[in-house]
Structures are given as C-alpha cells and as structure tokens.
Design a protein that fits this description.
This protein has about 725 residues and is of the alpha+beta class. About 50% of the residues lie in helices and about 10% in strands. The strands form six sheets. It has an eight-stranded antiparallel β-sheet with strand order 14-16-15-18-17-12-13-20. The protein has a three-stranded antiparallel β-sheet with strand order 4-3-19.
Length: about 725
C-alpha cells in the first residue's frame, strides 16, 4: 500500500506563515495544506483579487481553463475552484508545488471515481500513442488530440467521419454529406459530420426530391427536363426571345392593318444607308432589322429567308429548343411560338421555386437512392455511438487540464495570492514581459500595454519613472512600459532607440514614444540643480546669440532694402575719440568689478575667518543648501514607488501597496559595469588636451588672498613695515 498521504489525511487546520516583503505582509505558500485551506485565507490578505488572461508570461490555455465563465479575467472564486479540483485528483496535493511538465500516474488518487476515471483516461491516451508501458504522462502527450484519436472510430465529440462506418454504402453517403454541407473537424483532425449537419442534409434532399416531383407532374414536364438538363437550350431561347416576339408582333400589326406592312419592313432608304457601310453579321445596324419579311399571317422561317445577323442564333434555337419540343420544322407559326413561350414560362416558374439547392449536384437519381436506402438512421446510429463515449473523451481532456494545472497553478498562485516571484531575486513575475536594454542599463520591470495614453494616466500614480516603448519584430508590434529604478534619465527622450528581449529570448527593436517622469535615484537628484543651472545658462546664451543674430540680419536686410551700403572706414583715417562715452563705460566696468570683488572678498574673508575644522563643514553646508531640497524630495518620492498602479492600469485588481523601495529598485534596473577581473587602460589617444587648470586655480586663489588682505588692512601694514 502507498505511504503517500491522501487529501483526507491532511488536517483542515492550518497555521499560515507571512513575510514582510514589499512593504506589506505576504502569505508564504509552502505546503499542500496551504493549498487545501486557501479558501480559508481572508481575501483581504491576497496580493491581488483579479487579473486578465492576456498579456501574461504563463500558458494562455491554462488561464482559459481557470476562467470558466470566459470573461477574460481570473478572480478569486475561479482560482479557488481550480485549486479544489486539482488537489482532489492527487494523492498528495503538495505535488502541485513541483510545477513540472510530466505527472507520474502513481500520483493520481484512484480511490475516488473521478480520479479512477482520470487514471483510466491517462492510460488510454498512452495506449493510443503507442506507449502503454509508460508510468508518466506529459503535456506533450495530451497536447495533440489528433494523434490521440487518430486510430479510433469514435471519440465522443458527436462528429463522425467516413471511417466511422464499416459499410461502404454508408461511407459513400457520409461522403455525399461532406460534399454538400460544410464539414466539421473531428477530434482526429479529419472532416466529419454532426447530428445537426446530417439533419440539414436529409432535409435538403427531401426538399429537392419534392420539388423535382412537382416538375414531373407539370403538363410541360418535357420542357422542364429539357431546359433543366441543357443550359445551352435556355441560353438559345433567351437569345432570340425578344426578337421573335418582335417579328410576330409586327405580323399581327400587318394583319390588323395591311397598309402598315410596308412601313413595318425596312425601306429602300434603310437599305441605301447599309450600302455605304462595311457589313458583317455582327453589325448593329443589320441586327436591328426584322428577323424576316413582315406580312399578314407570316410564319418565321427557321432555315431560309432570315436576317443574316440572326441566322446562327435562330439555328441554335431550332436545334436545341424547337426540334426537341415541336419536332423538326422549317418554319415557326405564331401558335408554335406561343406554345414554346408557355413552356419556357413554366420552366422559369418551376426553377424559381427550387428547394434543396445545396444537394442539387448529387442529381435526382442519387438523392432518391439516399432517401430510400435508410441511410439517415444508419448515420444517426453511428453518431449516437460516438456521443456515448463523451464522458471518456471529456476525461481525456481533463487529463490535459490537470497536467496544465500541475505545471502552472502554483506559479499563478505565487503571482496572485502573493507576489513571491516578483520579490524573489533571480525570478520574474508573470506580468514581467522581458528586459529593455537602453542607455547603458537593463530594465527588468517591463509590462505589456495595449493603450499607452490610457495606461500612463493611471500608472503615473506609481511614482515611478516609466518609458513607454513601441517594439517591432518581423512585422509584429507590441507596446511596453519599462520602469527605470536606477541611474538617471538625462539622455532619455521620445525617439531614443534600444532593444527589448522578451521572455522567449527574442529581440525587438524598441523606440521610446512617451515618458512619465519621476525621480529615479538620489544620485540623480544630487546633480539635478547643477544640471538645471547649466541648462538654463546654455538656453539663455543660445537665446541671446539668436537674438543678436536676428538683429544683425534685420539691420542688414533694412540697409539693403533702403539701397544703402555701409561705408568702410578709409585707410589710415582715425576715428574720433569720444572721451565722455568711454569714461562712462570705464566707470560702469569699475563699479561691476568692485561689487564682484567686494562680494568675493566678503565670502573669502568669512571663509578664512573660520577655524580649519569648520571649513569642510561650510563647504558641505553650501552643497546641501543647493542639492539638499532636491535630494529630500526625491527620497520621499522614491519611498512612494508602488507596483499597484502599473498593474491596475493593465486590468489587474491589486489588493495592496506593493512598494518598490530603493534597495529593491536597484535590483530591477542594472547599470553597465566592467566585469570582475577586467583590465582597463586609461590612455585615450583621442582625449582632449589638458589645460593648466591647476595654474589658473592658484592664480585665482592668489588674487583672492591679495584682495582679502587689502580689504582687511593687513597688506598696508606689511608694506609700511617693509618700506
């Protein structure tokens, strides 16, 4: 007897274990008992309450099976139902924690009817695949139903194929059904028919047989058969119908008034006009003339005396229509024509009421043979035999379902009940789509998005720097949102390119289309004020230069328009010296230099007045005054980084604040660094030439010292002592 515990051996009482990760208490699912008692865990302690079935890095078929209401979302009751079903079929529910592709048959709990039936189905699958001795079954075995049912006549799907019958006559009728009615696909992969298709086929055959019988009972049945069987006869009649009507109508007018006969025939002038043209049988002017000479009581000649443009068409009409229905004739009387017209109208009425057109191609003889042979009952009997195996076939599908749960369910729980995979180093959550490589870093927190504008509206509440990218690969497109949690965003902007690697290792071209800016790191915040100052100075300089350039261009353009040319100073001529002007300039420069010098002297004097140990503190204090506010704000913002809005914007219902603090954030974004043990050469042949900055600094310090001594009066005292 097996020593493995069954589901009944596990106590319903459970002592839950929680760990403080991501700023909230997360349950740790560590045993089969945890899974059995999952319905006792307060949903308020779950990390999520629902998630979508798309855009996740987990088998989509598994998610579809869990989503039993088919609304595209997985909720707590559906997940609990999946856990309950899977654990009820295993001897040891703890096996679900393995997450493997193959399931040992010995793990199935055959002490219950459901487990026993599932075990029998698993063995049947292996037998059908030619592996009856195998002790394990895998998803590869259950994934291809075509192979499983390839050698079986019946498979429980209510669809039969030609091979479902052993009688050739029945096989032929099933072939007729497939020929006339759109087939369905059997589980074996072959085209087949269901009960609905069979009922439709025999209903159509009965309609066609009834319609055909109606034609046989019609007084003009000879004409109906002729026109139905010979499309050329129909075309021949329709080609001359209007022209023959025209001929006999003209003859009736001539009979009504003999004096009209001359006017109804072509005049000499009509023939004179024809003589000026090159005639052919296809000439429109020739074809518009009457079929034959119009006179009282005239018959239509069928062989001689015809308008040459209509000879061929009349001959086709004679041989295909008149001769079969009236016998051989050289002319057609008005009465004959009325008989033929009546027959054709009967045909048009009969064809217009046709039913069962989908089976018309089989022909009336084959249709009557099918209806009288009892084939409908024989085919429905085969379908009933197939439907009787539905429970067994469903059990085979249940094997595939259990194998998918065996592999994926525990992983889904660790990304739904808790965010274990997300907060475990070296593992990735199911919502992480891959890694974005850009600007000397890799970002591992990347999620798929369908609508950038909609996602960014909510995701900005995450207080996380997000770069939205459009990724393309071999014509495929997708959009992602990448979280940057280390480094800085100085070089990031829409249009910047990178490479995105999905979870299958495929590389995509990635281009930033939108950025949601938030602080990335304390280091970035430290340098932020200085970068803003440098950017402001550069912008002002550019504006000033641009304004001066525009002013010069405007002045030059004005001079050109006025027809003036600036006069160049004559060689050797001296410009008059404006004393008052230059005195004012020198005075202004002197005041500015004096003010700057005084300010610098005051700062330096105050700094030199400090004790030696106070000087570093003063420098640090100045730096903190500049960078401190930015760093404090960044620190407070970084403490607010939250995963929930990023997932909620994708359709999740995250049930807690899943924080991304600074230490954890540094693991989600990796900066470029040299590998351990790498050798580095600092000699750069293209480095810029070094400037004597140290000399400049010493000179500046010397000048500042002299100014301080001058301001304090020490320099004067020393000079008086010396001289």
């Amino acid at each position: 007897m097996s020593t493995e515990p069954s589901s009944n051996d596990i106590s319903p009482a459970n002592k839950w274990r929680f760990s403080r990760v991501g700023g909230f208490d997360q349950v740790s699912l560590q045993s089969g008992n945890d899974l059995l008692n999952l319905d006792q865990l307060d949903p308020k302690l779950w990390a999520a309450l629902s998630c979508p079935t798309h855009g996740l890095e987990i088998d989509a078929r598994t998610l579809e099976l869990i989503d039993y209401d088919g609304d595209g979302r997985i909720r707590v009751p559906e997940l609990l139902e999946a856990v309950k079903w899977a654990t009820s079929l295993l001897k040891n529910p703890e096996d679900l924690l393995k997450g493997e592709d193959s399931l040992p048959l010995s793990s199935l709990d055959d002490s219950t009817p459901a487990g026993k039936e599932l075990l029998s189905s698993a063995r049947q699958i292996l037998t059908n695949l030619g592996k009856p001795e195998s002790t394990t079954i895998s998803l590869e075995d259950t994934g291809d139903t075509v192979k499983i049912f390839a050698k079986t006549r019946f498979n429980g799907d209510g669809i039969i194929t030609r091979d479902s019958s052993e009688e050739e006559a029945v096989k032929a009728v099933i072939g007729n059904v497939l020929e006339c009615i759109e087939p369905e696909t059997d589980r074996s992969g072959s085209p087949g028919v269901s009960r609905e298709k069979v009922d439709l086929f025999f209903a159509e055959t009965q309609k066609f047989a009834d319609w055909w019988k109606k034609g046989e009972e019609d007084p003009h049945s000879d004409a109906l058969r002729l026109f139905y069987s010979d499309g050329g006869a129909v075309a021949a009649f329709q080609a001359v119908r209007a022209k023959i009507d025209d001929f006999f109508l003209r003859c009736r007018l001539a009979q009504f008034d003999p004096s009209a006969a001359e006017a109804l025939n072509p005049s000499v002038e009509d023939y004179r006009l024809l003589t000026s043209k090159e005639l052919s049988r296809s000439s429109e002017s020739l074809g518009s003339l009457p079929l034959a000479h119009i006179r009282t009581g005239a018959s239509l000649p069928l062989t001689e005396g015809l308008n040459p443009a209509w000879t061929a068409r009349i001959e086709s009409f004679r041989s295909r229509v008149a001769a079969p229905l009236l016998g051989e004739k050289t002319s057609l009387t008005d009465t004959d024509w009325e008989v033929l017209s009546e027959k054709f109208r009967a045909y048009e009425s009969w064809v217009g009421s046709e039913e069962g057109t989908t089976v018309e191609k089989l022909g009336i003889d084959r249709i009557r043979e099918i209806l009288s042979g009892g084939y409908r009952e024989a085919i429905l009997s085969l379908i009933e035999q197939d439907e009787a195996l539905e429970p067994e076939a469903n059990a085979i599908q249940s094997v595939d379902k259990l194998l998918r749960y065996y592999r994926d369910l525990f992983r889904l729980l660790n990304n739904f009940v808790c965010f274990h995979d997300f907060y475990t180093p070296g593992r990735k959550a199911i919502f992480q789509a891959g890694s974005l490589y850009m600007d000397g870093r890799s970002c591992d927190l990347c999620v798929r998005v369908t609508d950038v504008a909609k996602h960014s509206t909510l995701a900005t509440l995450s207080h996380t720097y997000l770069a939205y990218c459009e990724c393309t690969r071999n014509g495929e497109k997708m959009q992602i949102a990448a979280a940057l949690t280390q480094g800085d965003g100085e070089n990031l902007r829409p249009g910047r390119n990178g490479v995105f690697f999905d979870r299958q290792g495929r590389d995509w071209d990635a281009t930033i289309v939108k950025i949601v800016e938030h602080p990335i790191s304390i280091q970035q915040a430290f340098w932020s004020p200085y970068r803003r100052l440098a950017r402001m100075v550069a912008e002002q300089a550019e504006k000033f230069a641009s304004a001066r350039e525009k002013q010069v261009q405007a002045s030059a353009a004005g001079a050109i328009e006025a027809g003036k040319k600036p006069e160049a100073p004559k060689p050797g001529a001296e410009q008059p010296f404006d004393v008052a002007k230059f005195a004012g300039i020198f005075a202004a420069i002197g005041l500015a230099v004096g003010a700057i010098g005084t300010a610098i002297a005051s700062v330096i004097t105050g700094f030199l007045g400090l004790k030696w140990w106070q000087m570093p503190l003063a420098v640090v204090g100045i730096i903190l005054m500049i960078s401190g506010p930015s760093m404090i704000l960044a620190y407070l913002n970084l403490r607010k980084r939250n995963l929930a809005p990023i997932l909620d914007a994708n359709g999740w219902a995250v049930n807690t604040k899943a924080m991304i603090n600074i230490p954890f954030g540094s693991t989600l974004t990796n900066l470029a660094k040299l590998p351990e043990g790498a050798q580095r050469t600092l000699l750069d042949p293209f480095a810029e030439k070094e400037r004597p900055w140290k000399l400049y600094l010493w000179i500046a310090a010397l000048v500042a010292g002299i100014l301080v001594l001058l301001q304090s009066g020490y320099l004067g005292q020393w000079l008086r002592l010396l001289f």
